[in-house]
Amino acid sequence: MSDLSRLPVQIGTLLAPDFLIEINNQDVTTQFRERLIELKLEDKRGFTADLLNISLDDTDGQLALPPRGGIIKLFIGWKGQELLKKGEYTIDTVTHSGTPDKLSITASSIDYRGRMNVRREASYHETTLEAVVKQVAERQRLRPVVAEKFKHIAIKHIDQTQETDSAFITRLASLYGAVAVIKMASLLFFEPGGAVTASGKPVPPLSLARHDGNAHNFSIADRGAYTGVVARWLDTKDTQPKQVTLQRKSKGQSNTAGQQGDNKSQTAAATDPETYLMGSPHNVLVLPSIYKNKEDAVSAAKAKWQELQRSVATFSLTLANGRADLIPEMPVKVSGFKSVIDAQPWLIESVEHRISSSGYTNKLYLEAVTERIEYEVIEE
User: Fold this and answer.
1) CA triplet 159, 165, 168: central angle to 5 degrees?
2) Is residue 331 reached through a cis peptide bond, with omega within 30 degrees of 0 on the bond before it?
3) 174-190 average pLDDT score
4) DSSP state of 202
5) What is the rounded CA–CA span in Å between residue 75 and residue 254?
6) Looking at residues 236-245, what average pLDDT do you find?
7) According to the model, what pLDDT value does residue 316 have?
8) Global confidence as pTM
9) Which end of the chain is more exposed for a tag (fewer CB within 10 A), N or C?
C-alpha cells in the first residue's frame, strides 16, 4: 500500500481529523482509515441530493467491493471530540480503477432507485400545505417537519400530474417561498434562512472572522439585481391575462445615482449593503408561466422575488479547520472583509466537508439575505 495515500498522523499537532463509517451497520472505520485517500461530503440545500465520495487505496488488492444499495452512516469531526452524525447515504456507484488500484464509492442522501423516482398522479383538494407535505413524506417513509408559517396555508386544489414526489415537493416549495430538504429520514419544509434540525429545532447563527479561513471569493452581478417581478394569471371570465407586479419600494436614490456624482449616495452605498445590492431601478423580471388565479400568481411572484434577492451576491469561504456542525441554510455573520460584506447577513447555500492528507477543511458557499428590502404589490 502506498504511504502517500494514507491519512497521516501528524506528530505534535493539537488537532487531527477523525471519522466513523458504518456500512449496513458494520463498522469499517479501522479498515478505511489506513487506506483513506479522500473523503468528501457535499451537503446541499433544498431537494438536491447530498453526495458522499470516498476514495480508498487498494494497491494490495485486499478491499472487498461494498454492496450496491448499501447504507453508509457517516460521523465526522476531530479526535478527542464528539463526532457529529452527518447522515445516511445509499451507495449508488462503485468504481475500481488502476494502476495504482483505487476503490471509489459514491453515495447519495436520496435513494433514486426507489419510490422517490416514481412518477405519480395525485390531486390534493380543500386541504392545507402541512397536510400535503405530510402525505408526500409518509409516502416516502419520512417524518414531516413543517415550519409554523406554512402549516395552516389553505390549498384549494393542486394536481401532481406525472411528477415524481421530489419534483412535486420542489414545485410546492417554490410556489410558497419555502425550502424542502431531506435530512436524517425527515422531510423538512421551512422558510429560507429559517434552518431547522431534523428534530425541528432552529439552527443557531454562526459568526466567522477572516482569520478562520484561508481563501474567499465575493461576487456581485448587476444584471441579476431585479427590482420587480411580474406574474400573470388568466381569469376564466376574461380571455386576456391579468398581471400583478411585485416592485421594490423606493428608498431614496439607488447606488446607480450615487455613482453619477452624489457623494451622499456614494457614502450610503459603501456602508449599507441593501443600497449597494439594489441595482438598476427598472430591471423587472416577467415570469413565463400563466397561473390559474390571482392567488397562485402572487404566491409565485413572492417566491421568485425572495429567490432573486438571495442570489444578488455570492460569497465563498474556505475554512482551514473544518466544522462538522455547518449545514445549509445556517445564518452567518462575517467580519474582517470589506465593509459591505461584513454588514451583509449571509446564508450557507451549501457546504463541502473534505478529509484528506491535508487535514479536515470546509468550503462554504454563501448567498445574501436581503429580507429588509420591502416590496409593494401592483395589480394591473
Assistant:
1) 45
2) no
3) 81
4) B
5) 48
6) 73
7) 93
8) 0.72
9) C
Cis peptide before 99 (omega within 30 of 0): yes
Q: Report d(CA 333, CA 176) in Å as an integer.
A: 27
- The two beta strands, 228-233 and 284-291, are parallel
Task: Give the chain's domains with CATH numbers.
Answer: 17-108 (2.30.300.10), 119-190 (3.55.50.30), 219-250+272-316+324-379 (no CATH)
Cell of 28: 469499517
Q: How far is CA 60 from CA 54, 64, 100, 289, in A?
A: 18, 11, 9, 58
Q: Are strands 242-248 and 375-379 parallel, antiparallel or unpaired?
A: antiparallel
350 phi and psi, to 5 degrees? -155, 160
Q: Which of 107-111, 144-148, 202-206, 307-311 has the lowest mean pLDDT?
A: 307-311
% the chain with pLDDT above 70: 75
Placement of cell 451507495 in the chain: 91
Judge contact between 179 and 191, C-beta under 8 A: yes
Give the angle subtended at the CA of 85 by the CAs of 82 and 87, to the nearest 5°.
170
- Alpha-carbon gap, residue 72 to 91, rounded angstroms: 7
Q: Locate all alpha helices (DSSP H) within 18-164, ordered by sequence.
A: 29-33, 129-139, 148-151
The torsion angles phi and psi of 158, rounded to 5 degrees, stand at -150, 140
- Is residue 88 a contact partner of residue 67, using CB atoms and an 8 Å limit? no
User: 85-113, pLDDT tens digit by residue?
Assistant: 998 899 989 999 988 999 999 998 866 55
In contact, 182 and 46? CB cutoff 8 Å: no
Identify whether 192 is preceded by a cis peptide bond (ω within 30 of 0). Answer: no
d(CA 273, CA 225): 13
Question: What element of type H or E holds 93?
Answer: strand 84-97
More confident residue, 211 or 47: 211
Residues 6+ apart with CB under 8 A from 239: none
| Average pLDDT score, the chain | 79
pLDDT band at 21 (very low <50, low <70, confident <90, very high): very high
